[in-house]
Structures are given as structure tokens and as C-alpha cells.
Design brief:
Elements (H helix, E strand, L loop, with lengths): L16 E5 L24 H12 L6 E2 L9 E3 L13 E4 L5 E6 L3 E7 L5 E6 L1 H6 L1 H9 L6 E5 L9 E2 L1 H10 L7 E3 L8 E3 L1 H11 L4 E4 L14 H4 L5 E7 L3
Parallel strand pairs: 2-5, 3-4, 8-12
Antiparallel strand pairs: 1-13, 4-7, 5-13, 6-7, 6-8, 9-11, 10-11
Length: 250
């Protein structure tokens, strides 16, 4: 099945590293999940989700290794993520061809990883809680290759013009690393206080601290691009998009 609206990341990954990011278009779900909802935990018709996942599977070498994402820092080997049960984790890595790492998002940041030799790939789900707690650091550690050999793609997430947070979120990041202050600017809205947070910059800062400088993507906003992306913050009841990465057999 072909869907020209889906995203194939533009980054200089090795040829055997394959990636795909779905959008909200190309499925059978009806509002508020219209149309390519891939999440089976959001209240959508299970038959519609099954059909949507079947359409996605037509573009993949095997079934995605789905995770039960809990905004934590657990990273698993995707080879062990077989159904049932779906493992509770927020990132997975793979070293063997044909094993598809996958994360579901609708504002949180999907992060795809590979090394320059194409020996390992990973996908991480980084909401602000997981990002602050260290999900990217744990994913890099689990990949077990030199950090400077890694390449990263930041998929569609809530953008810096839309991510309003309170003092507690800013404090959590800045107390951990002072440079995180650059990722927050005051939210001027009737004197209500708060901050606009740049999730993409926060991720780049965390990766830079690890020596990971080859970072791509990060130019979307799931909240503002309503016709293309699901957004939990914008809609509440909504679908989920998938960000996927795997090693080809070729």
C-alpha cells in the first residue's frame, strides 16, 4: 500500500537502514480518530485499527514490535518484543534485519537512531517526562556502539510555538542541566505565567551531552499541522502515528 503523505526521513543513514513515519492520512478510522489511527488503546474501533495496521504492514518487512509506552526509561531488545504480551517500555533496539522497532506518538517526540555502519537501530518515545528522566541516554547506552558513531532523526512532535508548560517542567530540566534554560521562553498570555518549551532543542541538548552531534529532523508541529498529524493536546480523544526503523536484508 502506498501513501505519499507518509514521511520517509531525509537523513544520511546507511542504505540498509530503513525508516518510515505515518501521518493521520490513509486509513479507515472515523472522527475523532480519522483516519490512520494505529493506536489500539485510545478507544477506536478495533476493526478499524486492525485494518490501519494491515495497511502499514504492507510497507514493512514484518510486524512492528509495538510497546506499551509508559513515559519511562526502559529500553528493550525488539527481538524480545513478541505478542503477547506487549512489553512496558519506551524504546527498543534491533541488530538483526527485518525486526521493526516502532513507537506511537501524538505530540510526544519520536526519536530514531542508527549507527554509521548500519549495525544497530533503535526507536524511542520521548515525552517530556521520559526525556527529562533519561530515555535518550538509556537508548544510546543500550545500542552499545560509540556515541560519536550514532545518527538521530527527530520525528513529528509538538513544536516550540505550541508546547505550553508550567514552572515545574522547566525546573526539572534546568535543575538537571543549566543549558536547558535556553529551551524555555516566557509564555505571555494575559499575565498567566508559564513557558513555551522547545522539545526538539531539549532532545538535541541531551544528545549533544552524549557526544551525538549528527541529529536531523525536528521541523514539524503536530499541534499546528492539524490536517496531517494527530495531537493529543489539541484534540484530547485522537489517534496515534507510528515512527518505525529497521535494518533491511539487502
Amino acid at each position: 500500500m502506498s501513501n505519499k503523505d507518509w514521511i520517509v526521513p531525509d537523513w544520511p543513514a546507511p542504505a540498509r537502514v530503513r525508516t518510515l513515519i505515518s501521518t493521520r492520512r490513509g486509513g479507515v478510522s472515523v472522527a475523532p480518530y480519522a483516519s490512520l489511527n494505529l493506536g489500539d488503546h485510545v478507544g477506536d474501533d478495533p476493526l478499524a485499527v486492525h485494518e490501519n495496521r494491515a495497511r502499514l504492514a504492507g510497507r514493512l518487512p514484518g510486524a512492528p514490535r509495538w510497546l506499551n509506552q509508559v513515559h519511562g526509561t526502559t529500553v528493550i531488545d525488539a527481538a524480545d518484543a513478541r505478542l503477547p504480551p506487549v512489553p512496558a517500555a519506551d524504546a527498543a533496539f534491533a541488530r538483526s534485519p527485518g525486526i521493526v522497532c516502532a513507537v506511537l506518538t501524538a505530540d510526544c517526540l519520536p526519536v530514531l537512531f542508527c549507527d554509521r555502519s548500519g549495525s544497530v537501530v533503535a526507536a524511542a518515545h520521548a515525552g517530556w517526562r521520559g526525556l527529562q528522566a533519561g530515555i535518550l541516554e538509556q537508548t544510546v547506552a543500550a545500542m552499545a556502539v560509540p556515541n560519536t558513531d550514532l545518527m538521530v532523526y527527530l520525528g513529528p512532535a509538538i513544536g516550540p510555538q505550541a508546547f505550553a508548560v508550567g514552572d515545574a517542567v522547566r525546573t526539572a530540566f534546568v535543575d538537571a542541566h543549566a543549558e536547558a534554560a535556553a529551551a524555555f521562553r516566557p509564555l505571555q498570555q494575559s499575565g498567566s505565567g508559564g513557558w513555551l518549551a522547545d522539545l526538539y532543542l531539549l532532545a538535541r541538548q541531551r544528545l549533544a551531552r552524549l557526544g551525538v552531534e549528527a541529529v536531523y529532523g525536528g521541523g514539524y508541529c503536530t499541534v499546528q499541522q492539524a490536517s496531517r498529524f494527530f495531537s493529543y493536546r489539541r484534540e484530547g480523544a485522537t489517534g496515534r502515528m507510528a515512527s518505525l526503523i529497521w535494518l533491511s536484508t539487502e
